[in-house]
Amino acid sequence: MRNRVPEVTLVFWIIKVLSTTTGETFADFLNSTLGFGLTGTTIAMGLLLVALLIAEFSVRRYTPPLFWSVVVVISIFGTLVTDNLTDGLGVPLWISTVVFAVLMGGTFAIWYARERTLSIHSIYTRRREGFYWVVVLFTFALGTAAGDFIGEALGLGYWLSLALFVGLIAAIAVAWRLGLNSVFCFWAAYVLTRPLGASLGDLLSSPKSDGGLGLGTTVTSVTFLVAIVALVIYLTVKVRAERRAAETIEDDLPDLVDAV
């Protein structure tokens, strides 16, 4: 009940994939379709992310609408970070992949050294939540760089890239069921859902002449955002019901103890 992040359920992973797809397509929508440009889009999303993080750290516990708003915006911003390095500064994708992997690994090392755990089930302090969001940002930037490197630099295309990442996540799920460390499996899957979502977004939004389905960034972004909103509403109702039930039990507990 004190945890500042949600429990890991099927809905969690669905929203995560939807948010990564939105991060890919909405960044392109703002950058190209609306003509904000890469720099303008990055500044706007960066400011919005800062505002949302301030709001997130100001609440006492996990709040679905606020939490998932941060995830969606950090997905967009993480995509833009990699795009700026690749398109703006000409940094090769393999270098970006290595750099973000090192930064993420370094954050994990500091997090574990300070807290002695990397489990998201124990994030009930703001310092631990701070480590969590830094890692999440790096996972999105790393996932974008690695996904683009595999899909574009290696020329696998959208369908093969999508199949590859689905297969890798399935392999991690099987390894988890067989006893592999759950914290490692969670973060490995979390990183891989980023290129999975990006491959799905590119497949849906790219023109048919480029191997996509031709839905465009506008339709894809709106569709996935509507789906995210619907699932977040469901989670909000569920969390409120669970908290009301827990509070009822806490209120009744003294009477039960007296009765015993």
From TrEMBL:
Q: Which residues cross the membrane?
A: 33-54, 66-85, 91-111, 131-150, 156-176, 183-201, 213-237
> Would you tell me the protein name for this molecule?
Membrane protein
Q: Which organism is it from?
A: Microbacterium mangrovi
Highest taxon, organism lineage: Bacteria
**Keyword set, alphabetical order:** Membrane, Transmembrane, Transmembrane helix
- Give the matching InterPro entries: DUF347 (IPR007136)
| Coiled-coil annotated spans | none
The record's listing under Pfam families reads: DUF347
